[in-house]
Amino acid sequence: MSGFANSILAGASKLIRAAIQSPNYVAGLAGWTINKDGTSEFNSGTFRGTVSAATIIGALIESSSSGRRTTLDNSGDIKVYNASGAVLFWYRNALAAMFFYTDTGSATQGSLVQSISAVAGTDPFGNAYGAGFESFGSLGTAALIDSAIIGLFSGLNRLLAATPSGLFVYDSTTPTQLLNSIASAAGTDSQSGQSYPQGLASFIAGTSFEVVIGPDPLGASFPALYMQQTSSSPSGPPRVITTAASSSGCEIQVKSGKASSGATEAITVQNDSATSGVTNGTTLLQAGKVSFGNSGAAFWDDNASQLSLPTGGGPFINGEGFHTLSNPSGFTGTCRVKLVPWNMVIYDIEGTTTGSGTFTFGSPPSSSYNPTTGRHLAVGQTAGTDGRLFVPTSGGPQLIVSAAGSFGGCFMIPTN
Prior knowledge:
Layout: E1 19-21, E2 33-35, E3 40-41, E4 60-62, E5 69-73, E6 78-81, E7 87-92, E8 97-101, E9 112-117, E10 121-122, E11 128-129, E12 132-137, E13 140-145, E14 150-154, E15 157-163, E16 166-170, E17 178-183, E18 187-188, E19 195-196, E20 199-203, E21 209-215, E22 223-229, E23 239-246, E24 249-255, E25 267-271, H1 273-276, E26 282-286, E27 289-292, E28 298-301, E29 306-308, E30 323-324, E31 331-340, E32 344-353, E33 357-360, E34 375-378, E35 380-381, E36 387-391, E37 398-401, E38 405-414
Antiparallel strand pairs: 1-2, 2-3, 4-5, 5-6, 6-7, 7-8, 8-9, 9-12, 10-11, 12-13, 13-14, 14-15, 15-16, 16-17, 17-20, 18-19, 20-21, 21-22, 22-23, 23-24, 24-25, 25-26, 27-28, 28-29, 30-31, 31-32, 32-38, 33-37, 34-36, 35-38, 36-37
């Protein structure tokens, strides 16, 4: 070895002795040794170049002795420090967990912002963490990902949970209040204890009402939008169902729902022209009674196959009872009038006269009972007499007869 005068040490570029050592060398305590078998021991050293090794064993390995640095110790912990010595990252080997902390820019230890661990526990600074990946905000847990859930939190209140069962959203101030759910099958939420249906559901806070988009709850394989009160569920909730929605045709049904299995639903069915074969499509009302107007007093009674018009109102013009007109002098009997649908009016007269002449009755309730053109109507009469009823464009009708006798008739005339 060049530089050594002792040939025992420096023989033909090879170390001849078993080792060269410092005078104070004590294995593991002091001094240094370089051994012929390729091993060596030093107390400390400085390497200006690259150090390469298959295995490095030591109590502490540091990227720097101070300031911003990374360390690996003999317990298997890896730490990253800021320039002032506060920990930014810590892999805690004994916990099999990783922790990330805020950088305070000083020696003050920052707060825990993220953790990754297979099980819940407490970090080296006393911060509690959950199993999985957890992110912390100023109020506590902000997000959590583990084997069963992806969660978002406001402090300790979970706002959102994505689990194998579905996606759930909670009220931020009342974490036991489920607000929304998306699930492929019906079930019960573990946090709120609330039942949820298959599909997308919205729950109205403080009530038992829910709005759902999912399969028809009565078993039809059609998508439906329905509403129900979970505290007292009906046999079939009110719902809107799409039974056809393709290029071959479209149909939508609105169903009233039914409170019990013995009740029946009212149904509105709308079809486009492709489905119905009718230009502009069709609307079908399936109900025992279909009402019209604000009061609903005019209605179609499907059970009786009858259109009913109320007194003083109706869907076309006033449908009503008869009005009796005042009798003129010399006439005994009745003359009455009634408006009916389709711009028509009925005059009904039956009675006797004391002689010939014109007998003018009282005016009807309004001018809508008068035709736009005066009408002369032949009446039934006693043999040998001649009579007619004249309905003017205003005022009361007139019975015109040639002699005393009995007269009568019932007439329906247009008012337009």
